[in-house]
Amino acid sequence: MIVGRPKAAVARDHVRRVNRWTDIAAVQADLEELPPGIFAGLDAAVLALDSLGARFIGTRLFLTARVPHVDAGVLADHWHARATVSAAVPDGACQVDTWSGTQLARAGEDVGMPCVAAETGAGAPSTLAMGHAAAALAAHELLALTGAIADGPRIGEELRLDLRRGRYDAFRLPLAAACAADHVLAAGRVERLDPSCLQASLGALMSTCGAGADTSVVLATRAVVALAVCEACGESTGPYLLASALETCPACGMRLASLRRVRRLRWGEAAPTVARRAASAWFRAGDAFALVPATEPARATLFAFPPPPLQWEPGAPWDGAAERFARLPKSFDLRRIRTLRIGVLGAGHLGAALIEQLAPLPWQGMLIVDRDVVEARNVASHSLAARQEEAAG
Ligand SMILES: [Zn+2]
Ligand SMILES: [Zn+2]
């Protein structure tokens, strides 16, 4: 039965069926649970996700891990497929630059207004045809980003395919002065931190890293609550803790509700409350944060904790298999493909189509991340689920 199986496992099985040489890591997890460090070894990746919230977090993960990436999507009702290409650099646009405050709010971001239109998780309509159309756009750009083919990638551009009207458009994304995805995460040098720094106090960590009261701390993906209010007595506090770690009201002991979540804050504002807590109150293995000096913002630095190891399932030795790829177009650099590790975030209708297109190539490694299981309503638009259901039945 395909229904009920994790989509990451369905994708893994497919890759292994058509390709025995590639190392595979299939992870069933929500993107918010994954620290940026585990993506740092990837040469390029694709975000194949419907949810604005997951796309937003995925963008920050790749900016922090400095992984060039493609964000792909479809509007199946309109026969539109889209792919947006980002080099994960401080001075180039990404898919979030054009988002409105409303879109950020729908992504679950705290934009200082009530999240009236938060996503319901019901998912958007899709079809196999549109999944494959967007997958083809994204696959070409991924191959170009990694240098696996001779074409140059269309960095900072959005590509749109309108199958109904027969139009293909490519246009340059405007670069927002202050993209909500915080490109400073992709700026400056990377300082690797010792794992023991997670046990040190936040105050000690920040002073080791050279943060002063006016330094901005930019957290990669997890937000801290900068303002919370007690639902019982109305007392407000600035706990500067993750929402999951909110403690009870200091005045009356009742529940605190988060009013303002931030990923960018001035260290001097948070220090009086959290300097003595362990750094693990904010960070986990593989996490990262940028420090931006108030006086010289151009001199930002990213500090990164070593990531937990990823479980790579090794592929078979590569002996004499090149023969099988003799019919690939001449522009495909097979030797280069053998050295590349790629990531696909999302193995739903779009990710599955992309994995179907990429799986036969003998990558060195493929990382696949998805949090969901296959549901009956997915099968009609999910290329791998439809195929495996047929094989099982
Ligand atoms: Zn951006
Ligand atoms: Zn209270």
What does it look like?
It is a single chain. The protein is of the alpha/beta class and about 400 residues long. The chain folds into three domains: about 5-180 and about 310-390, Rossmann fold (3-Layer(aba) Sandwich); about 195-225 and about 265-305; about 225-260. It is about 25% helix and about 20% strand. It is built from nine helices and 17 strands. Strands 1-17-16-2-3-4-5-6 form an eight-stranded mixed beta sheet, with helices on both faces. Strands 7-15-14-8-13 form a five-stranded mixed beta sheet. Strands 9, 10, 11 and 12 form a four-stranded antiparallel beta sheet that branches. Helix 2 (about 50-65) links the parallel strand 2 and strand 3. Helix 4 crosses helix 8. The longest helix is centred in the middle third of the chain and has 19 residues, at about 130-145. Residues about 115 have low confidence and may be disordered. Bound molecules: zinc ion (ZN) (2 copies). One zinc ion binds near residues 96 and 183.
Structural class: alpha/beta
Instruction: Order the strands across the largest sheet as they lie in space.
Output: 1-17-16-2-3-4-5-6
The span between the termini is 8 Å
CATH architecture of the largest domain: 3-Layer(aba) Sandwich
- Under the CATH scheme, which class of the largest domain? Alpha Beta
Low-confidence stretches: 113-117
Beta-strand residue fraction? 15-25%
Bound molecules: zinc ion
- Counted beta strands: 17
